[in-house]
Each structure stands twice: as C-alpha cells, then as structure tokens.
C-alpha cells in the first residue's frame, strides 16, 4: 500500500516542471476529446462520400477498377502511413488520451 499512497501524494502535492501533476494529466485527456470529436466528424463525412461514390459508380458516371485503386494505394499509401506515424508520435499516449478519445467520439453528434 505504500506505493499507492506515494503515488496519490505525488499527484496531489508533487510538481512536474513547475506544474501540478493533475494539470499534466488533464492535457492528454483534452487532446483525446478533441481528436475523438474530429474522428467522429470525419468518419461521418467519409461514410457519406463513400455512399455517394457507390451510387455514382453504380449509375456509370464513374468507374471503379481495382487497378486504379491499387495505383492510388501504391502512390499515397506510404505517405499516409508516414503521416499516421508522425501523428502517433506527437500524441501523448496513455489512458487519459484513450478515455478522452472515446468520450469525444461518443459525445460528438
């Protein structure tokens, strides 16, 4: 029980770079809220765009071929992976970010 008591004492009365630890712990949570909200909004837009694309392709205005999709994935896939890696490197990963992400995703209407 000594470790748990020491941890709670540090959270309530400690200091990380001159800031209280609770303030440092809130930053990933707020970032998670913002990212969750944006993911939910972009997901809605992506689903609507996908439905429109399927309807337009069905009506024959636009053709979907696996060859062109493969070319696009070969061209832009590594760039998307690189930017995703950079984003994950910048985000403060932790339980606060995950909880904020879930809450931001669920509360964005």
Structural write-up:
- The chain is an all-alpha fold and 109 residues long.
- The protein has one domain (28-107).
- 82% of the residues lie in helices and 0% in strands.
- It has four helices and no strands.
- The protein has helices spanning 2-13, 21-59, 66-90, 95-107.
- Helix 2 packs across helix 4.
- The chain is elongated.
- The mean pLDDT is 84.
**Basic shape:** elongated
Strand content: under 5%
Helix content: over 70%
Low-confidence stretches: none
Mean pLDDT: 84
Secondary-structure element string = HHHH
Biggest sheet overview: none
* Alpha-carbon Rg, integer: 21 Å
User: How many domains?
Assistant: 1
> What structural class is derived from the secondary structure elements?
mainly alpha
Distance between the termini: 43 Å
* Record field, number of beta strands: 0
**How many helical elements?**
4
Question: Top keywords for this entry?
Answer:
4 helices, mainly alpha, single chain, 109 residues, 82% helix, elongated
Indicate the topology.
Layout: H1 2-13, H2 21-59, H3 66-90, H4 95-107
Helix pairs in contact: 2-4
Give a concise summary.
The chain has four helices and no strands.
